[in-house]
Amino acid sequence: LSSGINAEYGVARMIKTQPKAVNLDVVLPAFVTWLPLREDMEENETVYSCLRQLLADGALTAHLPGLLPTLAKELSNKKVGDEGRAEISQMLSAVMTCYPDLMKGFPQEDLATLHGLMANGGS
């Protein structure tokens, strides 16, 4: 699978609306490598909402180590809208609570910055 214009949005919509119709074992490894979005930034909300749903369902756990640095960077990306940053903040908060060991790889300074960004909604 490779990314194309609107592919991220299309995959996210398919996962959100018909999750049983998507083979997540095949799709997720490629899907998470397409991030961060570089075009069509208005799609961020749908993509990050999908990821938050997958995290809540436990389907994203294996992909978190590679995805966390991207999420952390995207939290401070001003091109990501408020709702997209809110989705990212909720995901990072859940990871910090449910998977604290995954955050051990982050430098303390970066964690402090993340906490500050999350407290301020990513701004």
How would you summarize the topology of this molecule?
Elements: H1 7-17, H2 24-33, H3 44-57, H4 64-75, H5 82-98, H6 108-119
Helical fraction: 55-70%
Distance between the termini: 33 Å
Shape: globular
Mean pLDDT comes to: 83
Helices and strands: which structural class?
Answer: mainly alpha
Stretches where pLDDT is under 50 for at least 5 consecutive residues are none
What Rg, in angstroms, do the CA atoms define?
14 Å
Q: How many E strands?
A: 0
> What order do the SSEs take from the amino end to the carboxyl end, as H and E?
HHHHHH
Strand-residue proportion: under 5%
Can you characterise this structure?
- It is a single chain.
- This protein has 123 residues and is mainly α.
- The protein contains 6 helices and no strands.
- The protein has helices at residues 7-17, 24-33, 44-57, 64-75, 82-98, 108-119.
- Helix 1 (7-17) packs across helix 3, helix 3 (44-57) runs parallel beside helix 5 and helix 4 crosses helix 5.
- The longest helix has 17 residues, at 82-98.
- The model has no long low-confidence stretch (mean pLDDT 83).
